[in-house]
Amino acid sequence: MAEPEAQNGPERLAAFSDGVIAILITIMVLDLRPPHALGLAALWPMRLTFLSYALSFLFLSIAWINHHQLVRDVKHVQPCLMWSNLGFLFGLSLLPFGTAYMAEQNMAPFTVALYAFIFLVSTLAYIVMELFVAAQSGEHAGVKQATIRRSLLALLIFGGAIPCAFLSGWLALALIVGGATLYALSDWIRRRSQGKSA
User: 92 pLDDT exceeds 90?
Assistant: First the structure.
C-alpha cells in the first residue's frame, strides 16, 4: 500500500497536468491542415492560422514550464490546490477552440476578445495556485510579492486586451504576447527577488 505522503505528493499532479498539456498541443496541431495546392501562394491564406497556432503553442509552453517550476515547491497536495490546478487546466483546454475560432474568422474582434478571455481565465486560476503554493512552501516575502505582482500585472494586461480587441485585433494580440512574456521571465523575476531578499 502506498504511503500517504506518496499519495498526496506533487508527482501525480505534475504528471496529470503534463499529460493534459501534451494532449492540447496535439489537438492544436491537428487543426493545421495542409492546402491542396503547392507553393507559397497556397500557404499564404493560412498565415493567420499559423500565427494563432504559434502564439497558443508559445503560451502553452510557458504555462507548462511555469507550472513545472511551481509544482516543485509543493509539499503536500491539498484539495484546494487540486481544484485550482483543474481550473488552470480548464482555461488552457479552451485554447485549441479559441485558436481555431480566431483563425477561422480572420481575427474578427469578438474572436480576439474571446481568445484574450481564455488567457484571463487561465491566469486567474494560476494566481490561485500560486497563492496556495506560496502559503504552503513558506517562500520569502520578497519572492512571494514579486511573483504575485507579476501575475496581477499579467491579469491586467490580458483583461485590457479584451476591450482593446474591438479597437485593434493586432494591438490586443500584442498585449497578449506581453502578458505571456511576463511569465516567460518568471525565473529571472524570482532570482532577482531572491537576490534582493538575501
Answer: yes
Q: 39 to each of 31, 32, 100, 124, how far by Cα in Å?
A: 20, 16, 23, 43
Q: Which residue carries 476591450 as its cell? A: 163
Contact between residue 132 and residue 83 where contact means Cβ atoms under 8 Å apart: no
CA dihedral over 74, 80, 86, 89, signed as positive or negative: negative
Q: Dmax of the chain from CA atoms?
A: 61
The answer to which of 3-17, 45-59, 123-137 has the lowest mean pLDDT is 3-17
Long-range residue pairs from 84-87, CB within 8 A, at least 24 positions apart, any chain: 84/125, 84/128, 84/129, 84/132, 85/13, 85/17, 85/125, 85/129, 87/121, 87/124, 87/125, 87/128
Question: What pTM does this model have?
Answer: 0.81
**C-alpha span between 31 and 52 (Å, rounded):** 11
For residue 169, with 0-12 CB atoms within 10 Å meaning exposed, 13-18 middle and 19 or more buried, which class applies?
buried
pLDDT mean over 185-197: 59
Domain ranges of the chain: 4-197
pLDDT tens figures, 150-178? 888 889 999 999 999 999 989 999 999 99
Contact 161, 119 (CB under 8 A): yes
Cell of 101: 475560432
